[in-house]
Amino acid sequence: MYAPPVQRLITELSRLPGIGTRTAQRLAFHILRTEPEEALALADAIQEVKDKIGLCERCFNLADGPLCTICQDARRDAGLICVVEEPGDVIPIERTHEYRGRYHVLGGALSPIDGVDPEDLKISELYARVAAGSIREVVLATNPTTTGEATALHIAAALRERTPDVAVTRLASGLPVGADLEYADEVTLGKALAGRRAL
Ligand SMILES: [Zn+2]
Description:
The chain is 44% helix and 14% strand. The protein has helices spanning 4-14, 21-33, 36-52, 69-72, 90-96, 123-131, 146-162, 186-194, and strands at 54-55, 62-63, 77-84, 101-105, 137-140, 167-170, 197-198. A five-stranded mixed beta sheet has the order 4-3-5-6-7, covered by helices on one side. Strands 1-2 form a two-stranded antiparallel sheet. Zinc ion (ZN) binds at residues 56, 58-59, 61, 67-68, 70-71.
């Protein structure tokens, strides 16, 4: 129906989350109408982010070098690790200004039905960090969803066995059940952090 290059662009756009075929077509026609330099700025931004951004070798947050900005910051409390599912979950917790420790980004949540097992996430790397010592507390801030809860319980059980001296806490309730951390407001999330409980 379309010239192959146009069809290719529509196909690529429709792979993006939340973009159906009709929206992909609309975006493709928008791109076709815009000035070359404007459209190429998008291509260039994608290229740059893929070239320059990787994962922090310590906490697996997004980083433009070996360590992310949080791990590089010597003022952060190195005895505290907050475990989250995705790099996007670090931002709302930072916005609360309630947390001064470091992070550990799992890269998802356990979901055996979808084939996500412990070895698919950065879980063994977390155990290694905690076992290396100087960690007082691990705050499990996975999402209050079925998979997020299952992940928190799995990690809590393993940590209790491996490193019984380290406190393991979970965000207090008050977070809407079934919601993503990413969409929680700062006040609710700040309270959930302040009221975290032992797990
Ligand atoms: Zn890091």
